Amino acid sequence: MDEVDAVADMWVDLAASQRTYRSHIRGPENRETIRDALARHVVTDGLRVARMDDEIVGFVMFGLERGEYVQDVTRGVVRNIYVEPAARNRGIGSELLSTAERELRDADAEVITLDVMAGNEAARRFYERHGYSPHRVEIEKRVESDTHSKED
Question: N-acetyltransferase domain: which residues (predicted)?
């Protein structure tokens, strides 16, 4: 299994863990999509991995925002960051985040953004310790329907 496949498997684990916080993204069903995205990030130099004993234990995906609107700042985006549960609390996540921030700063990002699930208090504390603060809040409402949901 190559590195992109190993990271894709970790992303599936990340997506599964985010379902605890009401994420709508399904991991296994999106594995090929994320594998393609990871391959693009490898090409654009926006993927870094962390290793312990030659095994990949974490990753971060990042890049400059390429939106349809002209903005007054260049935004860097940390798209995904994940550390295997057994490798947590060793500074690996902090090192991955610092690496992404340094790379984005070197690419002329003026601000760095990321998303975190509202209910994921541990992740929110982690990012706050690294200087992040809320900038925009996404809210949602479940819509009642006569048809079956995708969960059925």
Answer: 1-152
Domain residue limits, the chain = 3-129
Burial of residue 10 (CB within 10 Å: 0-12, 13-18, 19+) is buried
pLDDT tens for each residue of 43-54: 778 999 999 998
Tell the CATH topology of 3-129: Aminopeptidase (3.40.630)
Among 1, 62, 4, which Cα is nearest to 32's?
4
Strand duo 55-64 + 47-52: pairing: antiparallel
Dihedral (CA of 108, 127, 66, 37) sign: positive
Residue 7 zone, left/alpha/beta (φ > 0; ψ -120 to 50; rest): alpha
| C-alpha to C-alpha distance for 43 and 22, rounded to whole angstroms | 32
Res 31 pLDDT > 50: yes
* pTM for the whole structure: 0.78
